[in-house]
Design brief:
With 382 residues, the protein is mainly β. It is built from two helices and 25 strands. The strands form six sheets. Strands 1-10-9-8-7 form a five-stranded antiparallel β-sheet, with no helix packed on it. A four-stranded antiparallel β-sheet has the order 2-25-24-23.
């Protein structure tokens, strides 16, 4: 295999499939096999239902016991990475990654909370384990991709449960800040990788650097076919501190959230090569993290603002109005700071909290929680 990547990058070819582990087909998530009807009711029980509501508030957590049925896991460290697992609709299961420890756990509505891997990470500044995504062929190979910080660089690795992680793309610059990344598996056995600028805003526009970019690679780490520049993994430039990558159900549009100089923003990602015109900006810098495209709304989780904001979308995918605030204690529950978000269905997402990293943790933090489509009110600045 030819490794035609920039000088700062490396790629590897190896066989690290699940090997001797027993294999079974993964259930496929379809609109007909969504979560059970009682799951969406979980989050809505705290939303005002009118003056005649008789619903009781959820008791506060007691140690690691959380009485909120939307909570999938408790007493974790900062959850900076989540990815939903395929579901047959009877349960919702996800992988959750802790930024500082590198632990990856499988958690779910069935009460499952099992550590499946511990990745070697260096968590200084904002680095560590900051993204997870399933292999495009996860049903066959059971591989998971992760974005991690090491002592020398930021990189993409892949692993299977019970097997050590192996490097896929190395040499992404590391700095005092700007080390977080985001991952998204796409059609055609390709991955999108959003990289931070390693504390150097100019690197985001430097064609010779892998910092501050959206990269498009194949599952072995080589530049994907059809990239704007042949033999280069760079797909778009102009990222500074990515919070998340997400796409709509059909894969027709892709988004990246970014905490840039002077503002937070969300961009449409395409082959134009530069992220110059954001779809929306937040001058108050609420700390954008993960996102989910639910067709008619783009959901963006916030760390500093400690809420979830819904951007209404027009048919062409453009933003059709100001963001509506939810999950802030008034419109939906308040889980504090969000460190990650991933789509489960067209109106359910799974999120990880980051209250142990600059927030006000309760006894059961940090947690993995379900986010369900909510009625909303309020808006944010444009």
């Amino acid at each position: 295999m030819a490794c035609g990547v920039l000088l700062l990058a490396g790629c590897a070819e190896f066989d690290d499939s699940a090997g001797e582990q027993s294999w079974r087909p993964a259930p496929q998530l379809t609109p007909e096999a969504g979560p059970q009807p009682d799951l969406p009711e979980v989050d809505r029980r705290e939303i005002p239902q009118g003056p005649d509501t008789s619903r009781e508030p959820v008791p506060p957590p007691d140690g690691c016991t959380d009485y909120d049925k939307a909570v999938l896991a408790t007493c974790l460290d900062t959850v900076s990475a989540v990815t939903a697992l395929p579901t047959d609709g009877s349960t919702i299961t996800a992988l959750a990654g802790e930024r500082r420890s590198g632990r990856v756990l499988r958690v779910g509505t069935d009460g499952d909370q099992e550590e499946i891997a511990t990745l070697d990470v260096t968590a200084g500044g904002d680095g560590g384990l900051t993204a997870l995504t399933l292999s495009p062929s996860y049903a066959e190979d059971r591989l998971v991709y992760a974005y991690v910080t090491t002592e020398t660089d930021n990189r993409v690795v892949r692993f299977a449960e019970g097997r050590p992680a192996k490097p896929v793309l190395t040499g992404i610059p590391k700095g005092e800040s700007g080390n977080g990344g985001a991952l998204l598996a796409t059609d055609g056995d390709t991955l999108l990788v959003a990289t931070g600028d390693a504390g150097d805003p100019a690197a985001a526009r430097d064609a010779g650097s892998l910092a501050g970019k959206v990269l498009r690679i194949d599952t072995s780490g080589a530049p994907a076919e059809g990239n704007p520049t042949p033999d280069s993994p760079v797909y778009a430039s102009g990222v500074h501190s990515p919070g998340g990558l997400c796409a709509d159900e059909e894969g027709s549009r892709t988004w990246v959230t970014d905490r840039g100089p002077g503002r937070d923003a969300v961009y449409r990602v395409d082959e134009s090569g530069t992220l110059s015109t954001p779809a929306w900006t937040w001058p108050d810098r609420p700390g954008v993290t993960g996102c989910a495209d639910w067709g008619d709304v783009l959901v963006v989780a916030m760390a500093d603002a400690a809420n979830v904001q819904n951007l209404p979308l027009n048919r062409d995918g453009s933003v059709g109005g100001e963001p509506q605030v939810t999950m802030d204690g008034e419109q939906g529950p308040d889980y504090g700071r969000y460190g990650s978000l991933d789509t489960v269905t067209s109106d359910v997402a799974v999120a990880g909290t980051a209250n142990k990293d600059g927030g006000q943790p309760v006894s059961s933090d940090d947690r993995v929680v379900l986010i369900v489509r909510q009625p909303a009110s309020g808006s944010g600045p444009d």
